[in-house]
Amino acid sequence: MSNRGINDMDNAIFRRPDIMPDRATHFCPGCGHGITQRLIGEVLDDLRLRDKAICVGSIGCTVTSYLYYDVDGTEAPHGRAPAVATAIKRCHPDLHPFAIQGDGDLASIGMAEIVHAAARGENITIIFANNANYGMTGGQLAPTTLVGMYTSSTIAGRKEDRHGFPIRVSEMLATLDGPAYISRVSLHNPANVRKARKAIEIAFRAPLEGLGMGFVEVLSMCPINWKVEPVNAPQWIVDNMIPQYPLGEFKCKPEVEELKKAVRG
Amino acid sequence: MLISESRKTSYIVIDKDKCKACYYCIAVCSKNVIGISKNINRFGFNYAEPIEEKAHECTGCKSCAIMCPDIAITVYSSRVLEGDID
Ligand SMILES: Cc1ncc(C[n+]2csc(CCOP(=O)(O)OP(=O)(O)O)c2C)c(N)n1
Ligand code: SF4
Ligand code: SF4
Ligand code: SF4
User: Which of A101, A95, A112, A86 minimizes the C-alpha distance to A33?
Assistant: First the structure.
């Protein structure tokens, strides 16, 4: 016999994070939350946080985010996640609470909680999923809804004079001294998902080092409420969201710059 | 056994019952490895699947898996040893 190929060991170079049970999610086709949850799972694995992390559920489509991780979790709907996470961290400084909050949950119902938790410099991780609408309840206007954007409660589009202007949460929080790290990332292509992965890791590392809140705003696909085919949703982010919500870092304490050197990718 | 060559190949496996047919994976694969199945999975989605004739062109870039919101894709890399075997 000659020139026969033998498969040596097959090696998975990309697979489900260990910390995420083999379970289908309840998200719609193409929902960005699935990518965000996986990125957090990768970080929980890499930083070995299985026994330390506490997933704080919010309201909206991320309400049951704790179902997708083998970690302890609790519920703090309607924007209260930063307050509950504060309590967990202060009572159990050895644990690490984190939350995924939607834009209705964080920027509308819970705006007070996030602002004060950020101002206090709580050592917690907040991942803010911005999809420009209230997803779970059927696509109503959120504080992040774009001017002109159709939602089920602005059927002729968002109008400045009637509904006001969208809020840039990351920029606003970056004026505070408490947060250690604030950045805005997007999920519209693999390169940006890799950047999002890196930002999320920093948002975990910084509060773990006691440097203050880690906050990442993720521009996230919600095809069903944007009324676009999932496959066109990433381009929708590029065309509509990024002009209003520019990507980048808005806050990075000098000590966090040091931490970044340890982050791969 | 004489091994004359060792090369890397990559391939993907899609868990069809996790797939929700967003087709992000198809949009980002520069080698057009992935296509739409004419069959449906248990949820009624025409799931994504590797195209048989194209599967060998996979470079293992992981882009498809990175974009998959449902963690339906696993990417493998395997070393193929080529040589004379008695
Ligand atoms: C006090 C109260 N107000 C409103 C609601 C309805 N509600 C459920 S989820 C949600 C917000 C969902 O939007 P968002 O936070 O943007 O998350 P998404 O679903 O888009 O991920 C609201 C308002 C509620 N349950 N309780
Ligand atoms: S409604 Fe939008 S945010 Fe909610 S699961 Fe569906 S796509 Fe995701
Ligand atoms: S990205 Fe995932 S869920 Fe979407 S079509 Fe491909 S395998 Fe299916
Ligand atoms: S790993 Fe890269 S080349 Fe292979 S199927 Fe996925 S996107 Fe295509």
Answer: A101
